[in-house]
Design goal:
Distance between the termini of chain A: 25 Å
Strand order of the largest sheet of chain A: 1-2
CATH superfamily of chain A: Farnesyl Diphosphate Synthase
Largest sheet of chain A: 2 strands, antiparallel
Shape of chain A: globular
Structural class of chain A: mainly alpha
Oligomer: homodimer
Number of domains of chain A: 1
Helix content of chain A: over 70%
Radius of gyration of chain A: 18 Å
Largest interface: A-B, 53 and 53 residues
CATH topology of chain A: Farnesyl Diphosphate Synthase
Number of helices of chain A: 14
């Protein structure tokens, strides 16, 4: 058994577990208002790499949190992620018709329903953190989870990153500005995915929590660089979304600033930094190490 | 001094207090991303009846919670309310150009910024509840606040009501269906405004909390009926938003179902039920009584 095989197995188990956990926490499709609930379920279920839940489960495993305690946090970050995709795809934003190989929410339903489905998923994320009985930690830790996710999602985190992204269309960003945008746009939620897992272990040594946070910061940026690389290199079918979109939209990206080889090199360096950060941890962190490699080697 | 004078004074004090508290909790306009933060501040500050913060402060006063402990909850419900207005006004939703007498967020800025400003305000609401140091209650009570607000805001509350509202354009709703829509669309957040105040008093007798909850349920519906009445009766200038919009959009409303006189009568009955519910409370609940009357007598 090698790390790659272990990661594949771990990913399959986690993806199935996350799918079931998400399904369980979403309102039923026949519950009123049906169309809204159908749109929420359509966008959340049946696809996606589930990178954020994977990170929550993998970080939890690295610090010894039982899987049962991680379902709620994993779902909460995924609900935030999916709501951001729904809103990002809207005509007034990126105007994308295709996501994960199927029509985007506003195409499959309509724009108003897509806006509301996103809004409701954000509320659901916080409801899960506050309410979910599977999260067996003291109220103060739960509250820290709410705070972490709210900060990562808001105007100084993910939404702020999207706003900077929109403002920068057609502009030339330098490397620090591009990095700053991505640290918010995708990095903040990826860090939250890991940090919710360490918060699920209230007595965890804070230096270990800090290490995992730094790991998450590195792989969050590496993930975005690889996204940019794939946007340059892949075809639409492999990607499950429209290829070359960033370049066509004249959006700043890493290959444009560093060249394709330079971007790949930077992703590799971030992967190495992420793995180095975990040097004090044992085999229980192997999945995190393998996930970091997976992020820079993935093709979709 | 009579109740009306007291209410006027209370409203002025609360509106000024809420304005300052909201200002303090919003990111500065020159903080990056500037345009997003400007849009958030533009939509939140400088207007509105602040009915929800008023209710939080008034309910807090009725049960003896210090004002300082109510600023956070009052801001959280108002952030949710304003985000819902921003999204509601979007072209894909109600397509309104005017709100509180000034251009709506997507007109003053742009659609993408309006979507993101709403999203960020929702996250900010939960961040305030989880983080705000002014909320001096145990973590378990704060967590109950998060849960209450998340439930009131989501697909079974406010957003669900908006979805039902959208689906019912051009349809004939019967009275129970119309009521069900409004109980979610505006009623859920109005109840949350009151319930966050009682949660700020962790040792409060639950029967009193229940009474205030029922009061809030009554006035929430009365508020919506009066909104429908005003939509029929007022002119655009007094209303600060486009008059006759519901009728023009062929939206179901109370005057259409009950007649104008019948709608007014129903609002009066709900006001009386709200006041009756408070019969066990003394003068400390007078503002709540006066607010209930104000809601059915307001002209804008």
């Amino acid at each position: 058994m090698n790390l790659e095989t272990d990661l594949n197995r771990f990913m399959q188990i986690c993806q199935a577990r996350a799918e079931a956990a998400l399904d369980l926490r979403l309102p039923a499709a026949d519950r009123m208002p049906e169309r809204l609930h159908q749109a929420m379920r359509y966008s959340v279920l049946g696809g996606g790499k589930r990178l954020r839940p994977l990170l929550t489960y993998a970080a939890g495993q690295a610090v010894g949190v039982p899987w049962e305690c991680l379902d709620g946090p994993a779902c909460a970050v995924e609900f935030i992620h999916v709501y951001s995709l729904i809103h990002d795809d809207l005509p007034a934003m990126d105007n994308d018709d295709l996501r994960r190989g199927k029509p985007t929410c506003h195409i499959a339903f309509d724009e108003a329903t897509a806006i509301l489905a996103g809004d409701a998923l954000q509320a659901l994320a916080f409801h899960v953190l506050a309410h979910d009985s599977s999260i067996a930690v003291p109220a103060s830790s739960r509250l820290a989870m709410v705070e972490t996710l709210a900060k990562a999602s808001g105007s100084l985190g993910m939404v702020g990153g999207q706003a900077i992204d929109l403002e920068s269309v057609g502009k030339t960003l330098d490397l620090p500005s591009l990095e700053n945008m991505h640290i918010r746009k995708t990095g903040a939620l990826i860090r939250a995915s890991v940090n919710l897992a360490t918060l699920a272990h209230p007595s965890l040594d804070s230096s270990i929590a800090d290490k995992l946070d730094h790991y998450a910061k590195c792989i969050g940026l590496a993930f975005q660089i690889q996204d940019d690389v794939l946007d340059e290199e892949s075809d639409t079918q492999t990607l499950g979304k429209t290829q070359g979109k960033d370049r066509d939209n004249n959006k700043p990206n890493y290959p444009a600033l560093l060249g394709l080889a330079g971007a790949k090199q930077k992703a590799r360096e971030l992967h190495e930094e992420a793995v180095d950060t975990l040097s004090g941890l044992g085999a229980e962190a192997d999945i995190l190490r393998a996930l970091s490699r997976f992020i820079i080697e993935r093709r979709a």
